[in-house]
Amino acid sequence: MAASGAEDPLDAKSGKRPLAQRIDPTREKLTPAQLQFMQQVQLAQWQKTLPQRRTRNIVTGLGIGALVLAIYGYTFYSVSQERFLDELEEEAKAARARARERASGP
What we know:
The structure is a single chain. This protein is mainly alpha-helical. Helix content is about 70%, strand content about 0%. The chain is built from 3 helices and no strands. The relative contact order is 0.04.
């Protein structure tokens, strides 16, 4: 019978499998085959998560676009509701009319 560690590399204390050890490829001397394998694994992991990431990016982009359009629309709505300039223009017309009356009156 083989050793228990050879069949299933479970940690006896926690019952979990050990995690892959992180290495720094710039410090460790790796063979070209090991570097190529690392690149293949990274590419496979990237391709595995690509659809989920693409969906999240599309939803985020649509959300930001909707927010921008809502702010833009609200700005136009609030500016169209403003009567501030109309009131100023009416006051200016009244002031001009009073000025004409004063100038032509005496």
